[in-house]
Specification:
The complex is a heterodimer. By secondary structure, chain A is α/β, with parallel strands linked by helices. Chain A contains 18 helices and six strands. Chain A has helices spanning 2-22, 27-51, 58-77, 83-107, 123-127, 134-161, 175-196, 205-226, 234-256, 259-283, 287-292, 319-327, 338-343, 346-358, 377-384, 395-398, 420-423, 474-487; strands spanning 331-336, 362-367, 392-394, 407-411, 442-447, 467-471. In chain A, helix 6 (134-161) packs antiparallel against helix 9. The chains are: A alpha/beta, B mainly alpha.
Chain lengths: 488, 115
Amino acid sequence: MLTVVINLAYLLAAALFIFGLKRLQSPATARGGNQLAALGMLIAVVATLFWQRILTPVEMIAGLVVGGLIGMILAKRVQMTSMPELVAAFNGFGGLASVLVAGAEVARFLTDSDGMTASVVPAAQVAAGVPLDFTTTLTILLSVLIGMVTFSGSFVAFGKLSEKISGNPVNFPGMRALTLLLTLGSLAAMVWALIGAPDFPRVSEPVVWGVLALAGLAFVLGILLVLPIGGADMPVVVALLNSYSGLAAAATGFVLSNTALIVSGALVGASGLILTKIMCDAMNRSLFNVLLGGFGGDAADAAPVAGAAQDLTFTATTPDDTAILLSYAETVIIVPGYGLAVAQAQHQVRELAELLQKRGVSVKYAVHPVAGRMPGHMNVLLAEANVPYDQLFEMDEINHEFDTCDVSLVIGANDVVNPAARHDKSSPIYGMPILNVDHSQTVIFLKRSLRPGYSGVQNELFYASNTRMLFGDAKDSVTALINEVKAL
Amino acid sequence: MLENLTYFVLAMFVGREVISKVPQTLHTPLMSGSNAISGITIVGALVAGGMVGGVWAKWLGVGALIAATINVVGGFMVTDRMLRMFKKKEPRALDAKQEGASVGGHVPEAVAARS
């Protein structure tokens, strides 16, 4: 009877997750959707606690409280602009949890147990002295592998996003060979453990050491897989790691034969994979290409490419000229990029937009799918600055409007507006869908310098006849624009 | 095992359907929200942590519980924090007054147009 109730509770939790995710389809219902999903989680936890009530609850309550407090503090205190790295960090914790659960499933056989009914391994199997059959062992090993790679990979992503680790692809000689070696080593550890499983726990070494070796190898593997990927490709990596943490949860679900885990893990796995695909399509690079790494780098380290040496001229402009251009335009489209986040100028941009709107100018924001360091990064940044979400438009919705746009204001974005992507077959960004900023009457770039962006490619748009460069820090420039517009 | 596999595959299909309609604007909360859901591992951790099966199992279980709870609580709270910020444009009384001052007499229309 109790198991029936608990399984029904798990079913309810899964249903709430699905409804909750569905409501994420619109900003109006999204917040409620999140709360539904949280409710589902609460139900699943309470049901499981209820099931375990005959066993020691003290450590469980303690674990819940400690984890809850840490999670709450991190969620409340962290700045909104550090959101990408925080999501990566939480993802890492999820992977770690999967590993530890799998480890616990193995560890509990290592000392004399008194016929507990807590685990789902059938008592008959335990009695027969063969607690770990092939399937169970395999799923434990997969849990450890995926969970550990997710853990270390996520924290490397955290490092890159928070700029503690260089945003440049890190490559050392022999890195590929080492990665391959680690993969083979992991497989070997898995095979060893699988071979030793039937004799477990009488002969515990193969399984225990196999699992430990796998954990260690997978940890380093996770690091090596993410290290060679450049900072601005992180959106893809984080989306992929997100999906891994879901798959790790599902694997744990297979180990414990727990429906809630399997279904929820699959939901999250699918979600992450879809986001990954969207990101890759938006960059017109295959996932393989992204994961191999070595692409792109932070502008600070990249040397300006040969294009600058050619006899190309750009036109610089000033805040007062730009202010006039903006104020007397009918339509203005603002294109935000990672530079906006770096300069922390989002509040000033919103203020400028409002000033222009009061003067009757139509102001819209065009957000490219891979602008920023995280899917939807720009949207969160602008939402934080109180920009109403109905002024934010996706590339496909707004691209044709550039034809009738008077002024495009590009702030901190570079590759996503580079026309070379359309026609220059030799360019690394060739084929990537871009925002048609060059179709507008005038383009104004807010940039600190002419240096190339993440891809290391010179942006030919800088030298176009209808482009004006407004040099300077984005925050300073926009503040200057605000003052000029007010003075008009 | 086969049952579990069935649930897994069906759930992946459902996930695909539901997620593909989430607009780009909400991709970041989607990632943090779905990440919080993947913290369902907390359930596995509770099962493991509650085990009476030796010291190692107990502590691994508690460790798993802490990690999973950080994931869940942090994840849902951070998602909520982000989603709170997404607002539609609201008519502001202050703006209406300014409109009234410069346009003179067209305040009601201006307010209606903004909402």
